Amino acid sequence: MTLELVNNTIMDYFLSEPDQTMIPYWNAPNVRLYCGDAMETLEKIPDNCIDLIFADPPYNLSNGGFSVHAGKRVSVNKGKWDVSKGFDADLQFHIDWIAACKRVLKPNGSLWISGTYHSIYACGFALQKDGWHIVNDISWFKPNAAPNLSCRMFTASHETLIWARKDKKAKHTYNYSEMKDGDWSEDRLKNPNTQMRSVWAIGTPKREEKIYGKHPTQKPLDLMRRIILAASNKNDLVLDPFCGSATTGVAALQAGRKFVGIDADVEYLKTLAKPRLKDVVKTLPTPKPRKAPTKRKAAVATKRPRKTTTKQKTVIAAE
Ligand SMILES: C[S@@+](CC[C@H](N)C(=O)[O-])C[C@H]1O[C@@H](n2cnc3c(N)ncnc32)[C@H](O)[C@@H]1O
């Protein structure tokens, strides 16, 4: 049996037997949500088992500034989780979560990181220091970005996405034809049947994507759909260590992938991620029952120590 097959079996077991490794906040066929710190939670996930990671870590831009929303002056503060702890601490945070992701990512898997200039350079530095190979950086242009209030600088209207693989020799997934020939009519920069370029014009989330409530940094489904279709295959396992409202999960399930999401804020999971995912699960065909793994594979899957943090216990109790 190849290493890949063994890892797939371990991951299937991990997904079907919640109490074997750690307690999820919520699980349903092909999807699991965990409430907790990304690093602590990633520690309990087996090595080399994730096909694709999308991470939208804190931007560290909540510094008391102002922006515009619907014609009104609004604070840029996203929440306590987004406040900078200073340059060194913020950089160390990115170094730590990126290293944790490297361990759980399959050898030929890939990692995407989204951010603004406040955070993306630190993430890029952390990736390069840790030996990752950068495949591309994508400029996500937001045609409907909010105007700049000060009129003393350009209007910030893009985010950068870094796409990286574990090392230079890794064989990452790239669905070239799907990108070239797919229907990307939402993107005014993409001409039909031409190669997908590294600048994408995609608007901020649509009204219908916000019906469950607002996450301050919710990503548009069109963006997540493109990333998932580009860099993973059907039945692959997609992980988002900072899942927020679980946009990654919605796009992953809709595209026939499996999803594991982590967020430290139970309110986001309770009011946004879980109801959004639940509604998608209802629309999917019922998966076939899984075979129990052999004793040996189960033993491998449970080798890592099981810890339940006090925070996780509290969340489960509150449910
Ligand atoms: C930029 S937002 C992600 C938004 C998400 N992409 C979406 O579409 O809704 C970052 C998320 O990371 C979570 N977070 C911050 N620090 C964390 C940590 N140490 N571990 C896990 N989650 C964390 C926040 O609660 C927030 O929901």
Topology, please?
Blueprint: H1 3-16, E1 26-28, E2 31-35, H2 38-42, E3 50-55, E4 66-69, E5 72-75, H3 87-104, E6 105-115, H4 120-129, E7 133-141, E8 158-165, H5 176-181, E9 199-201, H6 221-231, E10 237-240, H7 247-254, E11 258-263, H8 266-283, H9 295-301, H10 310-318
Parallel strand pairs: 2-11, 3-6, 3-10, 7-9, 10-11
Antiparallel strand pairs: 1-2, 4-5, 6-8, 7-8
The chain binds S-adenosylmethionine.
The site of S-adenosylmethionine has 18 residues, from strand 11.
Structural description of this entry:
This protein is of the alpha/beta class. It has a single domain, classed as 3-Layer(aba) Sandwich (Rossmann fold), CATH 3.40.50.150. The chain has ten helices and eleven strands. Helix 1 packs across helix 9 (295-301) and helix 7 packs parallel to helix 8 (266-283). The radius of gyration is 19 Å and the shape is globular. The chain starts with a helix and ends with a helix. The relative contact order is 0.19. Residues 310-319 have low confidence and may be disordered. Residues 37-38, 56, 58, 81, 215, 217-219, 242, 244-245, 247, 262-265, 268 line the site of S-adenosylmethionine (SAM).
Features of the shown structure:
binds S-adenosylmethionine, 319 residues, 9-stranded mixed sheet, single chain, Rossmann fold, disordered C terminus, alpha/beta
